[in-house]
Design brief:
The protein has helices at about 5-10, 30-35, 100, 120-145, 205-220, 230-235, 240-245; strands spanning about 45, 50-55, 80-85, 90-95, 150-155, 155-160, 170-175, 180, 225-230, 255-260, 270-275, 285, 290, 305-310, 315-320, 325-330, 335, 345-350, 350-355, 360-375, 380-385. It is of the alpha+beta class and about 400 residues long. The protein has one domain (about 25-40, about 80-175, about 185-385). The strands form 6 sheets. Strands 8-21-15-9-12-11-10 form a 7-stranded mixed sheet. Strands 1, 4, 16, 19 and 20 form a 5-stranded mixed sheet that branches. Strands 6-5-7 form a 3-stranded antiparallel sheet. It is globular and about 85 Å long.
Amino acid sequence: MPGEITIHQLFQTPTITGVISRIKTPLGLMQQFYNLQVGGSASENHSGRNIGWDIFDSTRTMAQVRAPGVGPGTTAQKPVGHVSAQVMRLHEKITILQEYVCRTRPPGSQFGTLDSSGMEYVRRQLTYGTRRFRNAREFMVSRMFRGAFGVKVTGENWDLVESDSANAMFTVDFQVPAANKTFLELGSGANIITSPWDDPATQVMSQLYAINRAYERLHGWPLKHIWVNSTALSWLMLNLEFQAVGGAAYRVFDSLTRRELTSEEGRPDTGFEVEFRAVPIFRFHVYDGVLTSESPTTVDGTAEADVSRIIADNKAIFTPDPSSEWCSLVNGSEYVAENVMDQGREVFGFHNWTTRVIDPAGWELKMLDNCLPTLRIPKCVAYGTIGGF
């Protein structure tokens, strides 16, 4: 294929200026923000892959009034519910033949530098593999806030896809109610998003307060965070209600700051955190991150397949402050033997190791993750259509 060269041609180039990546490593922002990353405070370990939790709701009902001299009234026992689920199992390996990488220079080093065992190349491939697992977690977390994601089954390979994909064999449904999607009826009897945010005359502030009011009735967690992409940010900057309430003599926002996050390469995030003067109790997160369902196999400029935005155009995600009470990540477990002499041990969540192989000699870089983001209170999430209608 045009642009491809052999490994030995690549490593014999006489003048090398470094190693570059033409795309930024995804940040995993949503899993970090809600503490659902590997080792995050909202993650918990459970043996096996079958998980569940009981539901015993608080109450808003009141005790009965009884006349003097009359015995107690009878009230029914509070029902107890239960939710069952199974964690996702992600498992991959990268095979590297020793003959392929030994007696070559490390990537980025000058001609003449020798890495007799090829360990630097192996290390970079291991980093690449673990990033794929982090990206998979970010996809599952972001689609949890949309309500579901799909799984495409091709033989023994299962690929994460959008829930509405025609290739999805089955769907992982997080039970977000239909009333918490699209135009956000939220059990109020009428849609809250009745006009699009791309119309400057839309009363966005009124819609936000209506969502917050509905949240009090649904579960009691206040609305705090709204996730949009930069297209929606431009609509809000021009909103007439924001300008009128925030003051015509002032800028429409109270603060607009670039996130102090960088990728593994040190590249800054392209997104922003915004607080508008008209609605200072809400925080807007502008996130333009993308993921792909397939990775490129060449470096000749071939476009990546199925690029999809973390936050879709014309959509917004509405959530309370992060808390493991309503949103968590469960790490399942399985037993792993890292070599033929290993007795095996139980590992939780993400784990990686290297296995030596022979005939021909090489390594298998193995990665495993048993995990599932969980919505303990599905009504805490709303996924609204804010434009394009």
